[in-house]
Amino acid sequence: MKEHLLNLIYLQYSQERILAELSLECEETNIDEAYIDVLGVVLDIIGYPKGTEDTENMTDDEIYCRDWFYQGLTDIAMDIEDEVVAKQKIEEFYNWICGETLELYKNNKLKTNDFVNNIMMTIK
Q1: What pTM did the predictor assign?
Q2: Which residues contact 19 (CB under 8 A, 6 or more apart)?
Q3: For residues 117 and 44, what is the distance between their CA atoms, to the nearest angstrom?
Q4: pLDDT tens-digit readout, 69-110
C-alpha cells in the first residue's frame, strides 16, 4: 500500500511542477481547472481528517488541518527538480503525514470510529 501512496504523491508532485511551468508560460490561461487533488485522496486513505470545523473556542494544539501537508508538498515540488531526490523527500513527507495522523489517534483527537466515518462520508 505504501508504494502506491508514494506513487500517488509523486503524481501530485509532478502535476504541481507542470502546472507551475504552464502558469508561467500561459499567464492568461486559467490552469486551475486542470488541477486534480491527488494528495487529498492520499490523506483520505491514510485517515487524516479533513480538519477541525469549529475552531473558535479551541487552542492551537486542538486544531488540525491539511494545509501544512499541501504546503509541504508544494515546497518539495518547487524546490527539488531531481527525480531521485524528490522521491526521497516524498517518502519523508509520507512518513510525516503518517506520524501526524498517528499523533491524532494517540492524543485521542481522532478515534477509529472517526476514521470509519470519514471513509463512509465519501461513499454516501
Answers
A1: 0.78
A2: 31, 34, 35
A3: 11
A4: 999 999 999 999 999 999 999 999 999 999 888 888 777 666
